[in-house]
Specification:
The complex is a heterodimer of chains A (about 290) and B (about 375).
Chain A: H1 7-31, H2 48-55, H3 57-90, H4 96-104, H5 111-124, H6 131-156, H7 160-167, H8 172-200, H9 204-209, H10 216-222, H11 230-261, H12 276-289
Chain B: E1 13-22, E2 25-35, E3 40-44, H1 51-59, E4 66-71, E5 74-75, E6 86-89, H2 101-111, H3 116-129, H4 145-157, E7 163-167, H5 175-192, E8 195-200, H6 203-209, E9 212-217, E10 220-225, H7 227-232, H8 237-242, E11 247-257, E12 260-265, E13 269-274, E14 284-289, E15 295-297, E16 306-317, E17 321-327, E18 333-339, E19 355-360, E20 365-368
Parallel strand pairs in B: 3-8, 3-9, 6-7, 7-8
Antiparallel strand pairs in B: 1-2, 1-4, 4-5, 9-10, 11-12, 11-14, 12-13, 14-20, 15-19, 16-17, 16-19, 17-18
The chains are: A mainly alpha (about 290), B alpha+beta (about 375).
């Protein structure tokens, strides 16, 4: 086994970082470049592309549409994912295995096929294409993510907790409210954030199913033809990129927090996990206020 | 329905012909139990013997495939767990990790809409009872295993159940803490006067705490009696072997005379045993003798009617005891246990390879018919 600090691994790691972040850095650079030609050297620094962007009503309209679709589809997918996860892991019913398989299929089907299929379906049903049809498609594709995130959390917590609640005189509804949902809350939030991100920058399904009002990715691509507007598009992508990045980081942080703070110390020893004290302190504050 | 003949109270828990099948497997087979009010009752057996399934049927987490379960005379086997007036202490405690100690203990009272002020009073009272005052605001993860155990107890007892069910609650604790908690549990049970049904695979634990023990194996109750009775007069070879250590030796009854039977031990001589069950000559029996009822000596002892000669194979020093392994002519071995009453730095005076006698009295012999 080679030493992890060896120059080989360090170089390897730096190359990966470069490949990942160099294009994004370029994007950022040209969003503040005073000129419409994408070539070095930069002409000078400016923020007027951002200014133009915020003055472009079509662009803002598209961003608002995307936001709307993303919020609606992620809420729907998370609600479905939560109920499905509870049903799948806590109740016995027929057709469980096919249900899971079917729910996860959208992960495997290429979006272009799913998009074409939904287009034909909506046409056949004489449903007019609109943000609604995009929302339905996005709900379908983000459901598997939500389901997997929540199921992972449900598997991680002790079934006996639900039995203990029932044993203490709690009805199933009360157990759901006071035990199950609080324990999977971080996962629900994480699932929602993932679903939101999936929807927000999704292009293929949206371009098949969009009506008169485009979503942001569809609009951005349509603007590529106009060289003088392109720097605005670049500015918008930088904004979206930063927003997505912070959402993903938030989702990960929430999920990690969820797993640490609800861990029960192994019997016979006091839990002193590194970084545990401050987290439990936060959670404790929440617990007190609900008393 | 079983009714206590002295107090005329119905049984706290009564199981009538209760069976449980999982996917064709008989986990519990036709179990009949009547546990008196205020009794400390243990279900003892190896893992997979059906003791936990029995407990879970009383709690309501499993439905019996057949049979009746009564709580204070009322049939409860069709009720969901939250409507049964019993509470359980889980093996891994199952404390709610997101709730404080106070909220954990208050959980059952809140679920049953007990007024706020009474909740506070009862939670504080139950924390005192398990000797954990002042820990209300901690989270379960901030407690030691022993403390979590006490919170689990308080959370169950605060509801004042008719019966407290305990599923190997001390299994996760270390040896020393376990001993402490055994006495503590017994004290608690005396104080609150609640019926305890205690599941364990630890025979010493069951003997220490219980008023009565039911020994289970393969889904059946093999013997149900007080600890002394179970230890001194195990009903079957399994019970004798599972509870403590026992030496077995097969033989055949030769004659019976005034309550004493003479048994021929296949080629090793004869032994004199008490006849409690109405033995008949010619009957095959197994003698079960506890290691501590045997005395090792260089010669047959005069006051201990029975003796067998063998070669000392091994001397095992275990601190408070010294154990000897004596091998007989036919290859069978007896374990003999003698207390170390004084320091014996120079050894015991016996050496491996010596021919010695295992002596015991007829009263120290248990006769098994199998």
């Amino acid at each position: 086994m080679q030493d992890r600090r060896s120059p080989f691994f360090a170089t390897y790691y730096l190359i990966i970082l470069f490949v990942l972040y160099f294009p994004l850095g370029i994007l950022f650079l040209f969003s503040i470049n005073d000129g419409v030609i994408f070539a070095f050297p930069l002409k000078g620094l400016t923020l007027h592309w951002y200014q133009d962007m915020f003055g472009n009503t079509e662009l803002l309209q598209a961003a608002r549409s995307s936001l709307l679709v993303a919020v609606a589809s992620s809420v729907a997918a998370t609600a479905l994912g939560t109920t499905a996860a509870i049903a799948l892991l806590r109740f016995q019913f027929k057709g469980k295995t096919p249900f899971v398989a079917l729910a996860l299929v959208p992960l495997l089907v290429p979006y272009i096929i799913l998009g074409a299929a939904l287009l034909i379906l909506f046409a056949g049903l004489q449903v007019e294409r609109s943000l609604w049809t995009v929302m339905i498609a996005h709900t379908i594709v983000s459901l598997p993510y939500a389901l997997l995130v929540i199921m992972a959390r449900m598997v991680g917590f002790d079934k006996h907790l639900e039995e203990a609640a029932a044993d203490l005189g709690s009805t199933y509804g009360y157990t759901l409210r006071r035990v199950i949902l609080p324990l999977i809350a971080p996962a629900i939030l994480a699932a929602w954030l993932v679903a939101f991100t999936v929807s927000f920058d999704e292009f293929i399904l949206a371009s098949f199913l969009i009506g008169r009002r485009p979503t942001l990715p569809v609009y951005l691509l349509s603007q590529m033809r106009f060289a003088n507007r392109f720097p605005q598009v670049v500015a918008m992508t930088v904004v979206v990129m930063l927003a997505s990045l912070s959402l993903v980081l938030l989702a990960q942080w929430l999920q990690r927090k969820g797993t640490v703070s609800t861990q029960v110390a192994p019997a016979g020893q006091i839990a002193r996990l590194p970084g545990f004290e401050d987290i439990s302190f936060q959670v404790e504050g929440v617990g007190k206020s609900s008393e | 329905m079983w009714v206590n003949p002295v107090s005329e109270q119905p049984a706290a828990i009564e199981l009538i012909d209760v069976s449980k099948r999982f996917a064709g497997q008989e986990a519990v087979q036709a179990v009949n139990l009547a546990i008196a009010q205020g009794e400390f009752f243990s279900l003892l057996g190896p893992s997979g013997c059906g003791k936990t399934t029995t407990l879970r049927m009383i709690a309501g987490f499993e439905q019996p495939s057949q049979g009746v379960i009564r709580l204070l005379g009322e049939a409860i086997h069709d009720m969901p767990p939250h409507r049964r007036n019993v509470n359980m202490v889980f093996q891994n405690y199952a404390l709610f990790p997101h709730l404080s100690v106070f909220e954990n203990i208050a959980f059952g009272l809140k679920a049953r809409h007990v007024p706020q002020t009474e909740i506070r009073r009862r939670v504080v009272e139950s924390l005192d009872m398990v000797r954990l005052p002042g820990l209300e605001d901690r989270k379960p993860a901030q407690l030691s295993g022993g403390q979590q155990q006490r919170v689990a107890l308080a959370r169950a007892l605060v509801n004042r159940p008719a019966v407290l069910l305990l599923d190997e609650p001390l299994g996760a604790l270390d040896q020393k803490l376990r001993k402490e908690m055994q006495l503590e549990l017994k004290r608690l049970q005396r104080e609150v006067g609640i019926t305890f049904v205690y599941v364990t695979h630890d025979q010493e634990e069951a003997l220490t705490m219980s008023d009565r023990i039911a020994v289970m194996n393969q889904g059946r109750v093999l013997q149900m009696a007080e600890p002394r009775q179970i230890y001194d007069y195990p009903a079957t070879r399994f019970v004798a072997d599972f509870i403590g250590t026992t030496n077995f030796i097969d033989g055949r009854v030769i004659s019976i005379e005034s309550g004493m039977a003479t048994v021929a031990l296949d080629g090793l001589g004869t032994a004199c045993v008490p006849d409690q069950t109405g033995l008949v000559a010619g009957q095959a029996v197994t003698l079960a003798i506890r290691p501590e009822r045997l005395r090792l000596a260089a010669s047959p002892s005069l006051d201990q009617a029975n003796h067998l000669a063998g070669v000392l194979e091994e001397i095992i020093f275990v601190g408070n005891d010294t154990q000897y392994l004596l091998r007989f002519e036919d290859g069978a071995r007896f374990l003999i246990r003698e207390q170390n009453r004084s320091p014996s730095a120079g050894g015991t005076g016996y050496q491996a390879g010596q021919t010695l006698y295992a002596n015991w009295s007829p009263a120290g012999t248990n006769v098994l018919l199998e």
